[in-house]
Amino acid sequence: RLETPRLRVAAGSVAIGGEQTGIYSIPSPGGWNLIGSTRTPIFRPDRASLDEAFLLRAGDRVRLVAIGPGAEVPGESAGTGRSADNMGPSDGDPSRGVASLRVRSVGVGISIQDQGRPGYRRFGVPAGGVMDSHGAEWANRLLENPPDAPVLELCLQGQVLEVLEGGWMAWAGGDGANPRSWSAFRVRAGEAVSFPASASGVWSYVAVPGGFVAPHVLGSVSANPRAALGGVVGPGTLLFRNPDSSFAPSSATSARRPAWGELPEQSGIHVFPVWPGPQWSSFSSSDRELFISTEWRVSSQCDRVGYRLTGPELQAGGTGMISEPVLEGSIQVPPGGQPIVTMPDGPTLG
Question: What is the pTM of this model?
Fold first, then answer.
């Protein structure tokens, strides 16, 4: 394997890692040695049945056939998700959403997320879903939505939303320093709502009464554009809300907020409990102590797939281990010695 995994490997790439051979079904990070590519699609989430969506399952036998030089090489992407001018109900969906917002600017990033799509890891599909469940649940709670109602997930800053329907909106996440953060507040039709950066925190959430309406893929609206799951929100996208909401505060209510104890602590150093993994004993006692005692820094190479940390180099004993299941929150140490923390859109094996 490579000392440092690549940031992106094209879909269809055939690779060897130790004693294993694999095919990258979507564009993704990866540290295996690339030996070829295939034009045969492995994952097609837009298909109606599981048999059509997933070409291969555990236990299937596969034979790789060389097609020689000069043959057409597949492109870098297996699909980039449904990109459209609106994110309302898909064709044939009996539900009817109400146009609520229009995206003027996506800022650093914006997507629709819910609690994800558990149950598909056996096919190699990560659960996905919101990065910060506490912030997302509070955005919904302030509007009396179900805790798993779809929300807008905002990355860092720069998003601008045009209000199409006067009423209420909630915004939760980040450090809470902005007067409108961690609150539900009234908005007017035609108003442009901007979302500035927080002093700390990356992800924040916007909710509307009833939650957002978007097409379901494998039981969830959560967007994972890399895997062509869910819709892509861009400038001009119309966002629809579910009309089935009973939220009706009194006219005297101008805002709603959670108790201050629900807001995240404003600490410069965040402390996380860590449970030892299967390869914990492969590291020396000094490296295990170094891992626990180090104040690691989050690098710029981080997204919904994984967070790379920078600090002292760790050395694991043994080489050529077989890849095995990886869960959200798993901390991997590649040969380069810098840990990577798996996020909701991260790999299911590693």
Answer: 0.85
